Amino acid sequence: MPTTLVGIDVGGTFTDFVLLQDGRLQVHKEATTPEDQSRAILAGLTHLGIVSAADAPVDAELVHGTTIATNALLERRGARTALLTTAGFVDVIEIGRQNRPHLYALHQERPHPLVDADLRFEAVERLDVNGNILTPLDEDALALTVAEINAAAPQSLALCFLHSFRNPQHERRAAQILRRACPDLVVSLSSDILPEYREYERTATTVINAYLLPLVGSYLEHLTDALAEAAGERPQNTDQQRASLPIRVMQSNGGAIGASQAAREPARLVLSGPAGGVVGAFRIAQLAGVEDMPPAAVQNSPLTTGQESGRQAPRIITFDMGGTSTDVALCPGRVPRTTESEVAGLPLRLPVIDIHTVGAGGGSLARVDAGGGLRVGPESAGAVPGPVCYARGGQQPTVTDANLVLGRLDAGQFLGGSGAMELDVSAAEEALAGLGALLGGLSVHESALGVIQVANARMERALRRVSVERGFDPRTFTLVPFGGAGPLHACDLADALGIPRILLPPSPGVLSALGLLIADVVHESSQALLIEAGSLAQEPAPLQELSAALEERVKAVLAAEGVDAPALEASMDLRYRGQSYELSVPLDLPAPDSAQASAAVQRSIEAFHAAHDARYGYAMRSETVESVAVRLRGTGPGAALSLPQEPLGHPDPEAARVAAKRVWFGPNGSSPTVCYDRLLLRPGNRLDGPAIVFQFDTTTVVAPGWSASVDERHNLLLARAGS
């Protein structure tokens, strides 16, 4: 692994950089360039000295979190995509499921399919539920269909035949014919992308991959070429290949993978950026040794921290507030993962970190609706034109403008007082004054407080959804806010949910980029099984055969990434007979002989009963258990993160004090507030709210009734006064 690593997280407003070199971290921010994300990336790498046409390129590796896939789905600007499926099943992606997202809404609009009706084509073939051929693939008819596909001129095609997860023979042969007749057409096979049952979800996931493939592939190729060009790595002769900095891309499952593999399966990148934040927050909490507390002790227990040898399974709620959206995740001692997610109303059945997203960020636009009510988001000012105070042409007030007018942001200390961006306070006040007039004559500060309260309400609902609505008591968790705007709102949200503790990493504004740096190299694969688990325990040969194929598949991908001996973690999806949904439980693999494999299956069955009882409050141990699918996750270690430690010193923070000003925290007027420079705060320093802490990548609000202390690793630990 190169000695220099750079994590790059592209957000809606800023592109964040974290440089790890010789054990030292350096952070940087650039305004995102939505029309071409590589421009901001190149600018940041040039600033950090990683690329330069004048000097030899630095031996570095980039780990990139991108929003290309996410934005393409949200904005419906992916490739012109066709679908080839078994005759009679072309409308599966439009019929979908009979789910009602809004149960009592009389008029609901379904998301439009990614493939229009005139781009859906049929193939004459049929397999039975066990993969046996009922109707052979009619290659003569397929040749005529291929001509129709060619005439329709799609850029990409999803190939999804009925029951191909049992037998991919027809899909692979059809793909050969298509590629020979249409060499420029990129093809995604469902038997490669998602070899599991459930036709709608398998078809939809394969279509998503096909829809994104040309766009993501083109972007990664363009980025690679741009990096090589910027580094002056031009070939000396026509036979020499252009070199470039190696790039890995963050996947939705919290692991990184090489750019070439990422380009082949872009559906795995849909939650690329937010995943890095959860990985980074969990690791920081591990290093801080944050412990959970039982509900009964919440109100009277002190904040507990320790050394690295302390608790390695912290219970945290991550709160990532950027410029466009807020991502939250609940980590009950582990990073939560799921294979059942939905993006832009479309099912995505690939492994992802379980993250809930709402359209509330620093750039969220405030407006008055037709009924005279105040609305904030989900529309965002983005990087261009940005908030009104950025003086780039924005006219509509945002959450950032409200924080600036209230004094929680400081024009002179924005981006750490570097002077890289000037904030126009008077323009923000004028915009909020106009909003206040539309709300019945509210003052500038009243309208700004209203914007903050509405935005907080949206984010509070998101936090409740991942905690209270899933049976978790948020009072037993630690809130870890990050992103450029997270620390501004953390105390308000912790108060709303009764969360007694907040952990602020040393660089919360770029924590997602830091998470990219330390992410493991990961590849996951799955395969449908569909057999009674009891029968599998008696005769485990099908499991041994399937697990060997999965292991070979995962190891081959990771070997191409330089991971020769990956750690393997298997799981099995189980359910009771008659159920429609499964629970995933650990499976002890590899199992070299039949006796070990049988014992592994039996342990998984027992784990399933326990998991079902924990989730639903009962278990049916006499009922037949069915094995639906087997999953295998291969992992190669990422970069080690070791934050510098210093002994605790004197509690007086006076040396870090840089200013005092009046800040609005409520409708009763402003309060005198002390401001500190975080770089000058030392381990052991304690400060009481109200206080503001400035640093380059974010601004932290310590609200009235809260106190903060600096631990040995320079984390800020916030707690309610008296707790």
Question: What does this molecule look like?
Answer:
With 723 residues, the chain is α+β, with helices and mostly antiparallel strands. It folds into five domains: 77-215; 274-357 and 470-517, no CATH class; 364-454, no CATH class; 521-636, no CATH class; 654-720, no CATH class. 31% of the residues lie in helices and 26% in strands. The chain has 17 helices and 34 strands. The strands form nine sheets. It has an eight-stranded mixed beta sheet, with helices on both faces. A hairpin with a 3-residue loop joins β1 and β2. The longest helix is centred in the N-terminal third of the chain and has 32 residues, at 199-230. The model is unreliable at 234-243 and 293-311 (pLDDT under 50). Residues 202-292, 314-524 form the Hydantoinase A/oxoprolinase domain. Pfam families: Hydant_A_C (PF19278), Hydant_A_N (PF05378), Hydantoinase_A (PF01968). Residues 6-181 form the Hydantoinase/oxoprolinase N-terminal domain. One of its GO terms (molecular function) is 5-oxoprolinase (ATP-hydrolyzing) activity. This is Hydantoinase/oxoprolinase family protein.
